[in-house]
Amino acid sequence: xxxxxxxxxxxxxxxxxxIKGRGIVAREPxxxxxxxxxxxxxxxxxxxxxxxxxxxxxxxAVKPIKGGVIADFDVxxxxxxxxxxxxxxxxxxxxxxxxLCVPSGVxxxxxxxIFDAASHAGASEVDLIxxxxxxxxxxxxxxxxxxxxxxxxxxxxxxxxxxIALGDIVTSQSTKSAGDSFDEAIINFIRKKHxxxxxxxxxxxxxxxxxxxxxxxxxxxxEVKGRNLVDGLPKNIEVTAAEVREAVSDQLYQIIDTIRYxxxxxxxxxxxxxxxxxxxxxxGSSKLRNIEKLIAIETGMAVTVADDPSDCVARGIxxxxxxxxxxDTYTFKRGKRYR
Length: 339
Fold this sequence. Notes:
The protein is of the alpha+beta class.
C-alpha cells in the first residue's frame, strides 16, 4: 500500500528516473562529485558534471558507470540514493520498488553489483531488464511477435545490438564503440593533428555541433580552445566537420562490424524478418547526423531512428511497470530476480 514503483535507466553518461503513473520525471548526468578528505558526496547529476575538469585536488568528479556496469560501487550507491530520494520527495510513500536495466551479456557479478547498489540505496525490491529489450519496447517494436526485430542501442559507454523475438533476446552482441569513444577519438585526433589538448566536455560539444557519419548540407566548422602541447599556452583552432567525421570513422565501422556479426548469428527465419522490417536505432548517440544512412549503405537494410531515442530504454522499462510485468512475474535465485 505504501510502496511506489520507480524505474531507472542507469546509463554511462546520463541517468533517467521515472515513476509509475507519471513517466520520466528526471534526466541527470551520471556524475558524482565527492570530497576525498572526508569521503562525502558534494554534488550529484548536473551540478557534479559542471565540476568535471575544474575541481581542486580535494574534490573528485567521476562517472561511476563504465560500459553500462558499475565501476565504483560506493559512488553508484550514493548516486542511486540521491535519485531515489528525489523521486520520493513530497510523497507519502516511504518504500519503493525499483527496476533497472543491465547490458545484455552482463556477468553474474556485474548484475549482482547493480542489484546490491539499488538495494543498499533504499529499494525494497529490485528487478533487472536487459538494455536492448527495454530499448525495443520503448521504440514501439512489437517484441512479443513471432517475427524477429533488430535493435541497435548506441549509448554513451556501449553499443548493444540484439535480435528480439517472442518477448526475449535471441542473440546479441555489444561493443565499446559508442558516444564516449567518439569523444575520445576526437580528443586524440585533435591532439595528433593540431597539437592541441582538449577535455571531454569540449569533445562532446564538438560532436554535437558538427559531428556526422556522412557528409551533410551546410557543413561548417567550430572554434576550439585548448592547451598547445608545443609551448603549453592557450590556443584557438578551427575544426571542420570533415575532420570530426574522419576522427570517428573507425568507431562507426566497429559498430557496423558488430551489427554484421550479430546478423551472422541470427537464425535464417528471423534474418528474413529483419530484412523485411529493417533495423531500429535507439540511444543518445544514434542522433549523430546521418548515422542511419551510413549503416543502411553498409548493411543493405533499411534503418530508422526511433522517436526520442535517448529516452527509449527508460520508456521501455516504464511500460513494463505500467503493464504490471515486473515484481510478480520473476523467480528468485540467490536473492536476485530473473525473468
